[in-house]
What we know:
The structure is a single chain. By secondary structure, this protein is of the alpha/beta class. The chain folds into 2 domains: 1-32; 50-306, TIM Barrel (Alpha-Beta Barrel), CATH 3.20.20. The protein has helices at residues 2-31, 71-84, 98-108, 128-142, 164-180, 194-199, 220-228, 248-257, 261-270, 283-288, 299-306; strands spanning 49-51, 57-59, 63-64, 88-90, 116-121, 147-152, 184-190, 208-212, 232-236, 274-276. It has an 8-stranded parallel β-sheet. Helix 2 (71-84) packs parallel to helix 3, helix 3 (98-108) crosses helix 4 (128-142) and helix 8 (248-257) packs across helix 9. The chain is globular and about 70 Å long. NADP nicotinamide-adenine-dinucleotide phosphate is lined by residues 64-67, 90, 153, 190-191, 210, 236-242, 245, 260, 262, 277-282, 285, 288-289, 316. The site of NADP nicotinamide-adenine-dinucleotide phosphate has 29 residues, from helix 10.
Amino acid sequence: xxxxxxxxxxxxFFCLLIQKVIDIMIIExxxxxxxxxxxxxxxGEIVKQIKLRENVFIPEIGxxxxxxxxxxxxxxxxxxxxQLGYRHIDTAMSYGNEEAIGQAIKESGIPxxxxxxxxxxxxxxxxxxxxxxxxxxxLQRLQTDYVDLFLIHWPSPKKYRDHYKELNNETYKAMExxxxxxxIKALGVSNFLIHxxxxxxxxxxxxxxxxxxxxxxxxWETIEYxxxxxxxxxxxxxxxxxxxxxxxxxIKMAEKYQKSTAQICIKYAxxxxxxxxxxxxxxxxxxxxxxxxxxxxxxxDIQILKSLNKDDGKIGSHPDYADF
Length: 324
Ligand SMILES: NC(=O)c1ccc[n+]([C@@H]2O[C@H](COP(=O)([O-])OP(=O)(O)OC[C@H]3O[C@@H](n4cnc5c(N)ncnc54)[C@H](OP(=O)(O)O)[C@@H]3O)[C@@H](O)[C@H]2O)c1
């Protein structure tokens, strides 16, 4: 009897192995990418996971999805990213692509528990009831019963600016309720400056602050404050939306390390203990942006990248004055 079981076990193992090889061949042929350059070992092993304060693990690179508004493009880009090994997807109610992302996750066949999924409360919703309602709608669109990380997208929506502090507190309390119900695994905010964080009274401390970060814009004051208070920083627009990739200093550095300028920017975030969320809808770039684990930027070069920080380097809106 035990001999038969051993044969069955080997047979299953052999089938899984063949399936994996076929998977890789299909991806390589269909998308014309070289999986070996990603040091592909087994699904989900490409990107290291780091621990958030709630003991939840987050893959240290996420896949950004802003501007992926076309549903088919969004679905295919996320599906391709998941097939390549991304396990962390960043979306938001306001991106209009939660349905496509839910569908991509479903079609990927990857267990939900292996994917770290973030969405954000849009500026239209504040307060307890609206937060619950909006959150449930997001879950439905995403075809899931929980999210790994839920963020207040912006601290001070234009329409609530005169009483945003009370509303943020009420909203965050609702998020804590959802956290205690197990529907949110980690709580966070986005675009919060130090004063917004200090205005927030919390029972479950903020775990993540997602802010703009790239060589032209680094808000060290907020980053140091968050890191000191055990919050993980996520970098949005880590490639400066593509606008900083022609910088001559970054180009020279890319040549030195035989990497692309995008890879230098992604590595710059990682080496500052910041989780980058590069977005791309181009298969080659989606792959390139994950292929950053075979080099290290020297401390001297990190300092050179730090020196590129500019007073007018911010591309996104100012959290206190955003016009939406
Ligand atoms: N919390 C917030 O308020 C907030 C704000 C902004 C963004 N985010 C999040 O952060 C994510 C990333 O930020 P982002 O979308 O603003 O900008 P980004 O990731 O810095 O840059 C995206 C741009 O860079 C291009 N690109 C990507 N990889 C490239 C490569 N290897 N070489 C050359 N060009 C490349 C993309 O073009 P293609 O797509 O054409 O390849 C796209 O135009 C967003 O998608 C979103 O999830 C959050």
